[in-house]
Write a structure and sequence with these properties.
5-stranded parallel β-sheet; globular
Length: about 210
């Protein structure tokens, strides 16, 4: 069984994917970490994330690199959005994602093109979203909890810029996959969002069993 969880930055898709993994007893891959790893690797190599050759060279990293805490920073998140526009980078990371998705026992993947490109035949697909203001507020609170001094206007501008890049790129743009259910978490608690996600997945799996 494969469950695809897609959506824009700070929509709650990562939290929901982890909760689904616990509920169904399945491994979870945050595919955004792969692009963050590429972005961070470019930075460490003093390369240019907007230069396709530099970004492609950075795709050869060990799995242990995904444990680097620096990957979770806002700066690296922006780098990830920039390197992800390159077709060669996306192609280089496809195999890692599909190998994870097709492992024995199935898997849950969260990202921006899981239901459209990586696993279009996934057994269940959810597109998680939230308003720009709510997503910026979540990033604001997260930064505060880690001792940061965030600026709300900058966070909003960054999220809007990332949305534009993700939705307008030529290769695997962010969009809701065919057959996916929309889950807007703007006015939901984490617990309520998780329960709705489980209900949506259960309903999709039941429909597949009956078809």
């Amino acid at each position: 069984m494969i469950i695809a969880v897609d959506g824009p930055a700070a929509s709650g898709k990562g939290t929901i994917a982890k909760a689904l993994g616990q509920h169904y007893g399945m491994p979870v891959l945050d595919t955004g970490l792969l692009y963050r790893a590429v972005g961070l690797a470019v930075l460490k190599a003093s390369g240019d994330p907007d230069h396709e050759a530099d970004a492609l060279d950075a795709c050869e990293f060990e799995d242990t690199f995904l444990n680097d805490p620096a990957l979770r920073s806002e700066a690296v998140g922006s780098l990830a959005s920039r390197v992800s526009v390159h077709q060669s980078v996306r192609q280089a990371l496809v195999k890692r994602q599909r190998d994870f998705a097709t492992q024995t026992g199935g898997a849950i993947l969260d990202g921006r093109d899981i239901g459209t490109v990586i696993a279009p035949d996934a057994d269940a697909k959810i597109f998680v979203t939230a308003s720009v203001h709510v997503r910026a507020q979540r990033r604001f609170q997260d930064a505060l909890s880690h001792g940061g001094h965030p600026d709300m206007d900058s966070l909003i501008a960054d999220i809007q810029a990332r949305d534009t890049r993700d939705m307008s790129r030529d290769h695997a743009p962010l969009r809701m996959a065919d057959g996916a259910d929309l889950l807007d978490t703007s006015n939901l608690t984490i617990e309520a969002a998780v329960q709705q996600a489980i209900a949506l997945v259960d309903a999709q799996l039941e429909r597949r069993r009956k078809s």
